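Design review, sub-item: ligand-bound model
Attendees: FS, YL, KQ
YL presented the inputs for the glyoxylic acid complex:
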Amino acid sequence: MTSRLRIAVCLSDNRPDPWVQGLRAALPEAEVEAWVPGSDMAFDHAVVWAPPQRLLDEQPGLRGLFNIGAGVDALLRLKLPPQTRIVRLDDAGMSVQMAEYVCHALIRHFREFDAYEADTRAGRWSYRIPRKRRDFPVGVMGLGVLGERVARAVAQFDFPVNGWSRSAKAVDGLRCFAGTEAFDDFLGASRVLVNLLPLTAETRGILNRETLSKLNGGRPGGYLINVARGPHLVEDDLVPLLDSGRLDGATLDVFQVEPLPPGHAFWRHPKITVTPHGSARTERDESIAQIAGKIRALEKGEPIAGVVDLERGY
Ligand code: NAP
Ligand code: GLV
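KQ shared the predicted structure:
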C-alpha cells in the first residue's frame, strides 16, 4: 500500500486553520496538518509564510516549500535540504491589486488630489492648471509577474512608461531598459519610480540618495512608490530628499521593520503616505487552488511554473 501524501501548513503571521481546511478540500487524497514543532509526522510538502529554520531541520525530506506569496526573500535566508524546491505564487489575484494600488498612488499625485482635499477642508474653490502626462514618465523597476501588469495598466492611462529588468525585454507600449549598464538612463528618463523588484543581494538598498537623485533627468520633482520590500530603500536617505524638494513625495507599502514602529519619521511626514504591506494581498482560495494544482503536477513528475532559481534569488 502506498502511503498518503502529507502536507504541512506553517504560516508565521496567519491562522493555519482556513488553509488546512481549504487544502484538505482541494487535495482529498492528501493528509494536511498544521505543523507543530517537534511533530513526529514526516511531511512531503509544506505550505508556508516565513517559516522558522526548525521546520526545515525537523523535516529533511520536504520536496516542496510552497510560499503563500510572490516574494521569497524570507525563504532564501533558510538552510534548505538539497532536494527542497521553493515554489512562489504566480499572480493568484495579486497583479490586479498591485495595478490598482500603483495607478491610484500615481493618479492621486499627478492630479494633485491631496491639494484638492485640503481645498475642500478649507471651503476653497481653487482651480489648478492641469499637468501634462508627458512630464510624468513612470519607471517600473522589475517587469515580472507584477511589474509587467502594473506597467501595462499605467500605460493604459497614456503615461509614458519605462521598464527595467535584468534580462532584455520587449513589451508593447513600454520603453524597456535592461541590466546595470542601463540603470542610470532608466532613472533619468523616469519621474515617478515604482519598485517591483525581488529583494536579492543585488537589489538591497537600490533606492538611495544617489539613485533617487537621478530621477527626472537629475531635476527635482521625482516621486517614489515602493511596493516590493522595505530593505530596497535606504530609509534614512528618504526624508532629506523630500525635505530638500528633490523628491515631491512617496507612497510606501513596505518597510525595513514591519509593522512600522510607532515614532518612525515616515508616520508623520506630510509628503509620505504609509500603507501596511497590503498593496497586493494573498487571495486564499485562488492560492489554494494554484498550490494544489502544482502539488498534483509535481507528484506526477510534471514541470510547474514558479520554481525559484536559488542562484538568482527569485
Ligand atoms: P518576479 O516575477 O520574480 O519578477 C521580478 C522582476 O525583477 C523581473 O523582471 C526581473 O528581471 C527583475 N529583476 C530581478 N533582479 C533584478 C536586477 N538585479 N536588476 C534588474 N531587474 C531585476 O516578481 P513579481 O512576482 O513581479 O514580484 C516582485 C516583488 O514584489 C516580490 O519579490 C515581492 O517582494 C513584492 N511583492 C510585494 C507585495 C506587497 O503586498 N507589497 C505583494 C507581492 C509581491 P528578469 O525579468 O530579467 O528576470
Ligand atoms: C507579499 O509581500 C508577497 O510577497 O506576496
